[in-house]
Amino acid sequence: MREAAKVSKYGSVMQISGSDFVREVSQAPQDVWVVVHLYKEGLPECGLLLRCLEELAVKYPATKFVEIISADCIPNYPDRNLPTLLVYNSGAVKANYVGLHSFGRRCTPEGVALVLCQSDPVLNDGQSGSDQSQKAVLEGVRWRFIEKVVTEHEDRDDGGSPSD
């Protein structure tokens, strides 16, 4: 029952302010991964990453996704570093990703998910806290990424026959 209540708290990207940061990120429950999107209004790259995060937040409702204007979080944070993702667990930064290049040539939800899960089981579907569930989530992320790449490759095929 407690697990179901925790899952229902998330499922979207929550806007926070600088004064909310400690409560919402640093003091989040220890078993909750928090993905922080540092952004600036009007930057297309930030909008693209946000759309990916919104999709991931729905798929992985036990992972907490928040966004904060970069200057509210880190005074004088350079715009050239945006968007930036910070990944927290147990009050500590576990990973950071600066710029869209961190997520491959095309920033897709599948690519972002794959990067987020490379070193730790950041994404959580809320089904269970077991290692088996975490492995299932990671396998699902990998499968969706491969499926997306194959589909895009087939869509780009110009229909010509390969040269011998």
From TrEMBL:
Coiled coil: none annotated. Residues 6-99 form the Phosducin domain. This is Phosducin-like protein 3. One of its GO terms (cellular component) is cytoplasm. GO terms for biological process: protein folding. Belongs to the phosducin family.
